[in-house]
Design goal:
The structure is a homotetramer of 135-residue chains. Chain A has 135 residues and is of the alpha+beta class. Chain A contains 3 helices and 5 strands, in the order βααββββα. In chain A, strands 1-3-4-5-2 form a 5-stranded antiparallel beta sheet, covered by helices on one side.
């Protein structure tokens, strides 16, 4: 299971006065793709947190190719990057769901996540996540 | 101490494609006015929460008179409404800080807050807050 | 066509440190319900704006009954309220999509929208919207 | 004029259920630092846009060192990076305004901005901005 697609429609609130989605909202789209992907893999965030694993972002990058507009349907493609004992990387591509001629890349990027316990101390990622390395 | 003024400048991210501040952001301005007011009164939220008092919003109303624009300086005027044992009301008026001819009302509204303990059970507001009734 | 349902899953970004969805995000859920409803009725916002009709919120109210949690699936039920020449009201109910025993009301509210032209002058709502009165 | 400081207090709405500021909000802090810096330099965004220059983000990076908490006072230090004819880079460092023992680095990053005209075509940055290269 290497890639996962999440489909979402752009909300009015996500636009800014330039007439397209504000750049900080793509970071939220990345998160949406990642959390849906992890739920699909069998590790919903809400359960991880109940088990005492918190996954804060330690690094985040986005490159913007073309604007997302209100009411656009977009596809967030999330894939696994490098998995270490104490951190995991996810890569993202956001496409416009074009009606006829295929898909247009709107943005891409990555996030790196660490792993903390409830007290905020760095701990190893849950084993079921670390095992994805061999998948 | 009946009224409190908070000054803030509109952020680009708060606008939407209509070219003014998105209506949901006024609710955030209300919160900003309220939390600054409570800090000023000697009850910062962060301390209340450490002491085990959580104040969720139970009701919220806003009336919009004129648009806030990016880079506008606005003044949030927060005042106390009715204080009951288990809930407290705050009223808000948001003005444009006009340079010459006084202030223009942009929006007004209120929020009602309840009081919960860490387990989410309804409890009485901290006594120091209930005592504001007699102030 | 009197009611419309929109289903959405709570995003991590929508939570706050109280551990549930921030109250201002319900206003965004209302908007999501309303814009999906209008698209369904054949009046997508993006087309209205292209035709020179802008629908700013003039009033907004929400009552919160129970917290929405991260990863909850919620159902936004949007219905038409009073339609005047220059304003339209929408009513909202947000339910938790419970697996077994039916639906739990999380929040309800309304918004009133005005109608402006590109220059920001109050104008009549498009006729196709005003005609909904008789629907 | 190489660096500019913007001071701001963390808003409740900016936190998430992990108990600290959501990572996407640092991107908004970067924007706040940048727009205040540009206003200080004499090029407020609102004027640039009136003159027909739109500056969308083409790239964005953030590295997170320590969490920002609600009610923390933070200092956003914005500085100019490379300036080309059609793009400009800004660098950011976000510090906790510590009371006694100096400042703690919470996050750092950069954004690259392009320049578009009203029709969305790439154009040169306004001359007054390009001239900053020689400042």
């Amino acid at each position: 299971m290497e890639k996962f697609e999440t489909r979402v429609r752009v909300r009015y609130e996500e636009t800014d006065q330039m007439g397209a989605v504000h750049h900080s909202k793509y970071i939220v789209y990345f998160e949406l793709g990642r959390t849906e992907f992890m739920r699909h893999l069998g590790f919903p965030y809400s359960e991880l947190e109940k088990d005492g694993f918190f996954l804060p972002i330690t690094e985040c990058y986005a490159k913007y190719h073309a604007p997302c507009k209100f009411e656009d349907e977009i596809i967030i493609v999330t894939s696994l990057g490098e998995i270490k004992n104490v951190r995991i990387k996810f890569n993202y591509k956001i496409f416009l769901k074009a009606d006829i001629d295929g898909q247009k890349l709107l943005a891409e990027g990555y996030t790196v996540l660490g792993c903390l316990n409830k007290e905020g101390k760095i701990i190893k990622l849950p084993e079921k996540i670390r095992r994805l390395r061999n998948a």
